[in-house]
# Entry
Amino acid sequence: MNLKELPVETIEAIMDSLPVDLSFVDDKDTVKFFNTPKHGRIFPRTKMDLGRKVQNCHPPKSLPMVQKILDDFRNGRRESAKFWINHHGRM
# Structure
């Protein structure tokens, strides 16, 4: 089966079954997608975050790191941002 043939609900269910938090931000820094894993997100998102600038979804102290990641994408220094966060004993 081709991915294009899968219903959106099926794709969302697949993404939600992954044991990681995923977010997709477009080239204009706008949040377009995030998954909702069964274990819960470390940093919860709501449907209100969709369409917002990703910078507005983070606390001020993390904005320099968020902006560096975005700048690295634009400058070709990275193609993805993978990182682990230890948050109250959860990775």
Remarks:
- The chain is about 25% helix and 10% strand.
- The radius of gyration is 14 Å.
